Amino acid sequence: MTLKFEIIAECSHTGARLGKITTPRGEFETPFFMPVGTMGAVKAVHPSDLDLLGFKVILSNAFHLYLRPGHEIVNRVGGIHKFTGFQNGILTDSGGYQVFSLSDFRKITDEGVDFKSPIDGSMHFFSPQKVMEIQTALGSDFVMPLDECPSSVEDKTKVEMAVNRTIEWAKQSKVAFETLKQDHQSLFGIVQGGIYKDLRIECLDAINDIGFPAIALGGFAVGEDQHLMLDTIHELPALLPREKPRYLMGLGYPGDIVKTVALGMDMFDCVLPTRLGRTASAVTSTGRLNMKNSEYKDDPRPLDENCDCYVCKTYPRALVSHLAKQDNISGLMLLTYHNLAFYGRLMRDIRESLRRGEFKNFFDDYLNKVLIPGV
Amino acid sequence: MTLKFEIIAECSHTGARLGKITTPRGEFETPFFMPVGTMGAVKAVHPSDLDLLGFKVILSNAFHLYLRPGHEIVNRVGGIHKFTGFQNGILTDSGGYQVFSLSDFRKITDEGVDFKSPIDGSMHFFSPQKVMEIQTALGSDFVMPLDECPSSVEDKTKVEMAVNRTIEWAKQSKVAFETLKQDHQSLFGIVQGGIYKDLRIECLDAINDIGFPAIALGGFAVGEDQHLMLDTIHELPALLPREKPRYLMGLGYPGDIVKTVALGMDMFDCVLPTRLGRTASAVTSTGRLNMKNSEYKDDPRPLDENCDCYVCKTYPRALVSHLAKQDNISGLMLLTYHNLAFYGRLMRDIRESLRRGEFKNFFDDYLNKVLIPGV
Fold first, then answer.
1. Which of A129, A281, B33, B221 sits at a 20 to 30 Å CA gap from A121?
2. What is the C-alpha R_g of chain B?
3. Helix axes B156-180, B197-210, angle to 10 degrees
């Protein structure tokens, strides 16, 4: 079966909606946020804790798992769920973004992309077909096609070329996927077009025509000005089919999530909460705290006085600061846990406000009172 | 109150005993093993998981907490339990062993030890009194006096000097502790003497005469031959007061724990399970596994097929191997968790066999069938 999506509630003042994606692996209420575990594990957090924190779907990466340990190995062990021990939903990104970001060597043609492994320098080739082979071998629930994600500051001609390739590759991906897929898998369509609204709309129309059960917006949060990004996103959801889940790729500032939920987006992913945790920063309701700052060394308060997570209920900032200063693994674990708890609660609060018909209040409160620059 | 100790059951074939230490913080059944969190946190494991794994007492280190963040800071935050978030028992080692192990600079006199901070090169002085000031400020439940722990290969004259200092310092420590202590704290006596039985007995008699509610054997597992160590330990427990807990410091091979429990030892600590976890080794019932070895890359089995811990129930060796090869924090977390689960179960099995009067069978089985070299 392909994924099913139903809308449970819609906000009457904004485009926000509460939905439910049903797959053979379970039901996942939207909007949801996916922690990122490119290598198959979200760093510094026990997979079992992800469930407790409210994350039913995580994001992994076909490029990384192709390079190490290899998709054949994951397949031989029994697929990505058995391999990672994560029994809920797993979305695999194609790795196109990672390949195009390689500084050492990559060459893009209409057929795909040649690249040099950043691990051992060996040469590899990703075609739309190859990327489907990898992800169907992995067995992830949500599969992303190879797309071309140009830098957001590229000129329009280059972005147009990328859009055309993305459309052509989407067609090829769909054909390959239909042949190779495991029953539980669903292939997403990806819309590119940078900050050019006409290109976005052109790409969106083409992706809609090809036909996918869910649509992703790619190529945002890749360096463009935030206002420009939100402005570009602004008009797109209205053009997306109402009855399909909408995934805004790679966007992760809490304020941006709230704003784009209001535009009708359903799925998010970002390295932010986990990466900040591993670099000693706490995401809190009063802003970001750099726990290496000496001001926290004898601070008996929890990381976030408005947080009810296990870390905030148990440990003083003084301990987290003490451990973070020494890059002690346990300090990074505590920060990662809290940051994910912050995101888990944000998404739960969004969903509950939608369920109660109070999203507009939540939205206004969040953006007027709670939102802190950088958070 | 000082700690209370009662014996619940004794093995009729060996010196092993099941006991219970009662403190204001709770009851701790012996024999128990203390995971080591020198900095106030056991690395790579959530403190809340320690409880689940059966560890009611952890070991921390006065020397490390004195240097960072400073015992005054820990005190200001509310003491070591509030600081670390660990609400069960905490034993603090004096740090003498760490100071004497400093390669850069340390000078021992009858008054104490001058040393250079390995962190910033600043000069410090530890006297028996100072070490009591630090630990009473920290507020740990079990306090260790400053002792001199000579290398196990030192000649007898040097070890004799160390024994005399240890005895003299024990007297001074007791006086200082009685003045400074918080009500819940108990001071242990430490017996030194290297591999020289007559010095051990001399030291033990003196420590008994001074009077402590619990006795530690220090200076083992510091480089001597294992048979020599066990041979030296062999006669000591019979000379220790039956009604006091006996702590064998720093000893941690599972086989050695089983052997010395049989000699009547009650408390253990060692960095082994956690350090091995962070260096990619799994302690299992069939031996130690180096998870960086490529043979595990597509192994679908759990780390230990005889283990019922969460890691073994959830993850294949293939994942742990994949993560360990990249020194991914999550890999070290999974290995640390499993290794601690192994130790937690070992101690539980020891206690249960004592409760059922079957320790001798357990002992024979363990040493004849289960014990693997290096485990």
1. A129
2. 20
3. 20
| Distance between CA atoms of residues A82 and A76, nearest Å | 10
Q: Catalytic: which of A256, A266, A269, A304?
A: A269
Instruction: Return d(Cα B218, Cα B269) in angstroms, integer.
Output: 11
- CB nearest A328 (choices: B39, B316, B326): B39
Q: What per-residue confidence (pLDDT) applies to B369?
A: 66
CA distance A128 to A262: 33
Mean pLDDT, residues B230-252 taken together = 92
pLDDT at B151: 78
Distance from C-alpha of A60 to C-alpha of A91, rounded to nearest angstrom: 6
Under DSSP, is residue B315 helix (H, G, I), strand (E, B) or coil? coil
Q: Distance between CA A95 and CA A248 in Å, rounded?
A: 16
Establish whether B299 is a catalytic residue: no
ipTM: 0.95
pLDDT for the residue numbered B126 = 96
Query: How confident is the model at residue B34, as a pLDDT?
Result: 98
Residue A279, pLDDT score: 96
For every residue of B246-293, DSSP letters joined together read EEETT---HHHHHHHHTTT--EEE-SHHHHHHHTTEEEETTEEEETTS
Residue B93 among the catalytic residues? yes
Nearest residue of A to residue B80, measured between CA atoms = A319
Instruction: Provide, rounded to the nearest whole percent, the portion of chain B with pLDDT above 70.
Output: 98
CA atoms of A116 and B49, how far apart (whole Å): 42
C-beta atoms of A322 and B298 within 8 A: no
CA atoms within 13 A on the CB side of B43: 21
Residues in chain A closer than 8 A to B295 (CB atoms) = none
CA–CA dist A2, B159 (Å, integer): 75
pLDDT for res B48: 87
Query: pLDDT at position B134, please?
Result: 98
Q: How many Cβ atoms sit within 10 Å of the Cβ of residue A247?
A: 27
CB contact under 8 A, A298 and B47: no
Residue percentage of chain B with pLDDT more than 90: 85
Distance between CA atoms of A45 and A51, rounded to whole angstroms? Answer: 11
Average pLDDT over residues A341-360: 98
The chain A residue lying nearest B68, using CA atoms, is A322
Chain A interface with B: residues with Cβ < 8 Å: 39-48, 68-69, 73-74, 76-78, 82-85, 278, 297-300, 310, 314-316, 318-319, 321-323, 325-326, 328-334, 337
Residue whose structure tokens are 């320690």: B50
What stretch of H or E contains B312?
A: helix B310-314
* pLDDT given at position A105: 83
Write the CB contacts of B198 (distance below 8 Å, at least 6 apart in sequence).
Answer: none
- Among chain A residues, CA nearest to B299: A77
Mean pLDDT across B275-286? 96
Question: What is the residue type of B193?
Answer: G
Query: Around B269, how many Cα atoms within 13 Å sit in the side-chain half-sphere?
Result: 23
